[in-house]
Design a protein that fits this description.
This protein has 302 residues and is of the alpha/beta class. Helices cover 29% and strands 21% of the residues. It contains eleven helices and 14 strands.
């Protein structure tokens, strides 16, 4: 555990998990020093692509009730039931960086300051410059290699979709951030970095390609009952009946000398399935894991 509260940068590549390949060197380098795993999602209702984007982001922030109210899935008149991230997590100051207008509206609804990705991002040709990483880190109080006593935000969520950039942009951005957070610097001791990549819209073909319950599927039915119900299929003592057992989000979390390193050396579905230390947790527990590192929530899980 760190001796001071961390500040979190979350890079969320919405729909970009499919495009990771050997050329994504900085992404794989991050995974090789990080604690990796899967974030399981529920089955999706009939929805548009923009609705999927907002719904899945709401899960990452454990704000699906707010999404249900905002989207009309719950009766109107419940707007007063929506609580902000600051109300739920001990005054957490958080920002969302995105160019998606619907996601911007939802972010404001749950108390996030919203910044435009297009304004934050500065490009040299098709590759982000170090200036993009510097701007993001400055929001967290990291400037000139120093950690300022006061920061605008405790956490910054950066939503990058397939319509915004290609995976190479995220890969280059991670490389810039890692260069600025070298061991021995003030930044590295306080920065908690998360990379989350989702599969976006899924089809029936994905069921057999990216399953997370393969152990149960492959086992002789006579012995299937001997396997205890996995924790990601539960909420408290109740079963989550809508768990989607395929196409989870891929996540790598890193903070120097704080997060555990597992055996993953590449950020791929197969590598995480065989070697990750965190295995599978529900996507709505992600924000609780991050908030714990910021001293804004109790520890989730073991």
């Amino acid at each position: 555990m760190a001796d001071k509260a961390s500040r979190a940068l979350v890079l969320y590549g919405d729909g970009l998990a499919r495009f990771v390949d050997p050329s994504s060197t900085h992404i794989h380098s991050l995974a090789s020093i990080a604690s990796c795993g899967f974030l399981s999602l529920p089955h999706a209702p009939p929805e548009s692509e923009n609705e999927r984007i907002v719904r899945e982001f709401s899960l990452l922030l454990d704000a699906s009730d707010a999404y249900s109210i905002a989207s009309g899935l719950k009766p109107k008149g419940n707007e007063n039931e929506i609580t902000t991230l600051a109300e739920r997590f001990m005054g957490l100051k958080a920002a969302l960086v995105t160019d998606n207008s619907l996601l911007s509206s939802f972010g404001k609804l749950i108390g996030l300051d919203v910044l435009q990705l297009s304004e934050i991002s500065q490009k040299s040709g098709s590759v982000p410059s170090d200036a993009t990483a510097s701007k993001l880190l400055r929001l967290l109080g990291f400037e000139g290699g120093k950690c300022l006593d006061v920061s605008l935000y405790d956490s910054v969520f950066v939503h990058i979709g397939v319509d915004d950039v290609n995976l190479g942009v995220i890969d280059s951005l991670i490389g810039s951030i890692m260069r600025m957070a070298q061991p021995g610097s003030e930044i590295v001791s306080r920065l908690h970095l998360s990379l989350v990549l989702s599969y976006g819209s899924v089809t029936d073909k994905d069921v057999s390609v990216f399953p997370v319950n393969a152990l149960q599927q492959d086992m002789n039915p006579k012995f299937a009952g001997l396997i205890p119900r996995q924790s990601y299929t539960m909420r408290g003592e109740k079963t989550r009946d809508d768990v989607r057992h395929y196409c989870p989000m891929l996540v790598a979390q890193w903070q120097h000398a704080v997060t555990r390193k597992d055996l993953v050396d590449t950020l791929s579905f197969e590598a995480l399935k065989k070697l990750s230390g965190n295995l599978v947790i529900p996507a709505d527990r992600f924000i609780h894991e991050v908030a714990f590192k910021l001293w804004k929530a109790p520890k989730y899980g073991a």
